[in-house]
Specification:
single chain, 371 residues, alpha/beta, six-stranded parallel β-sheet, 12 helices, 12 strands, 44% helix
Length: 371
């Protein structure tokens, strides 16, 4: 039996969505499963309020006792746990204390760089509760390398499982072969904030337009603060070629990405790991440009994009983008090629996911021959 000791939606965010998808995939494979939801989903409306923490602490006591009961009377072969970032690891510590006493193999799924950008005493405590047979699922080689460099986690205990594994098949949209676009459509989608690169995106768009490149710059996503909303309002009034369309979902989101020639994601967010928006843009054939935070360099390079350092000046980014445009990388033929590259990478990632699920079915995750 496989125990899913995870945060499930709601609240809905990247980690809980992946947990839910992994659970459903295992169900489809008829694997014997048990679920312990480690968040009070019934109180999701209070997420990001002070009451959430109080309710979660009380709820975690119930989870602790339920986990103990499970380990005593229905011991799982494998326990799958997506680990929290930052202070959320205090909850992980209590659960891992119980798991350490059992003979169940623990598989930790990592989704954050918060404890990988610099050493964390709290995460060292987490690692101290793991057994030599326990395993780690990471999003990419940069994450695997940081685990080894900062915490001496053996490479044999680490398996790479990209978020690309959980993408659905690409939408059936076609791009007709042709030349370069007359107007270059730039895009940026995020929970709009300065940490996610909003200011750099705007500066690059303005510099390109001033240099003679005809630009349409599309911003999508909610504003993270009143300051961000005021900044976007000012820029869109001053520069008509910059447009903010707000949050996009479903078909609107697909249309946003399908219209792009270049997706620019100059994130400086400290916990950035493997942002899904880069895969979503690549899925539609947009050329990627962004910083080397977390696993972003691997994502961008995978599809022939342009990766740059966080401290590079916007004028230098704009100049390099001009060179990309001059080299013909925004032509329709290149867009079609990038879609094909995405489909190949997606298929490989999904084979990796099926391998992990196969391990769950067998009731044991072996050592990794190579990350």
């Amino acid at each position: 039996m496989i125990l899913f000791l995870v945060d499930m939606p709601k609240p809905t965010h990247g980690m809980s969505s992946i947990n839910q998808q992994m659970w459903r995939l295992c169900q489809q494979q008829a694997i014997e499963l048990q679920l312990i939801n480690t968040v009070p989903s019934f109180a999701a409306a209070l997420f990001h309020t002070r009451w959430w923490f109080v309710i979660k602490c009380l709820y975690s006591l119930l989870v602790f006792f339920r986990l103990g009961w499970c380990l005593l009377f229905n011991k799982p072969a494998v326990v799958y746990r997506s680990i929290n970032g930052g202070v959320g690891q205090f909850f992980d510590l209590f659960f891992l204390l119980l798991l350490r006493l059992s003979r169940s193999q623990v598989v930790l799924h990592h989704h954050s760089f918060s404890y990988l950008n610099r050493q964390s005493s709290l995460f060292r405590c987490v690692l101290s509760l793991l057994k030599p047979t326990d395993r780690h699922l990471v999003l990419g080689l940069p994450m695997a390398n940081r685990l080894e460099q900062l915490y001496a986690v053996p490479a044999r205990n680490v398996h790479v499982l990209s978020n690309l594994s959980f993408f659905s098949k690409a939408p059936n949209t076609q791009a007709s072969p042709g030349g370069m676009p007359q107007v270059v459509t730039l895009g940026h989608l995020a929970n709009l904030s300065f940490d996610k690169g909003l200011r750099t995106f705007v500066d690059v768009a303005v510099l390109l337009q001033q240099s003679g490149v005809k630009v349409q710059a599309n911003l999508a996503g909610p504003y993270s603060s009143a300051d961000v909303a005021a900044y976007v309002s000012l820029q869109t009034k001053q520069y008509p070629f910059i447009r903010s369309i707000g949050p996009v979902y479903g078909e609107d989101k697909q249309q946003f990405f399908a219209a792009l020639d270049l997706f620019v994601f100059p994130s400086k967010y400290v916990n950035e790991a493997e942002p899904l928006v880069l895969f979503e843009a690549a899925q539609h054939g947009a050329l990627l440009a962004g910083t080397d935070r977390g696993c972003m360099a691997s994502q961008i390079n995978m599809f022939g994009g342009f990766c740059f350092a966080e401290d590079i000046a916007a004028v230098d980014v704009a100049q390099q983008i001009k060179q990309l445009i001059s080299s013909g990388l925004l032509a329709s033929e290149c867009k079609i090629s990038r879609r094909s590259s995405f489909a190949v990478a997606q298929e490989q990632a999904q084979l990796r996911l099926q391998q992990i699920i196969g391990f769950f079915r067998a009731g044991y995750v072996p050592e990794s021959s190579a990350v």
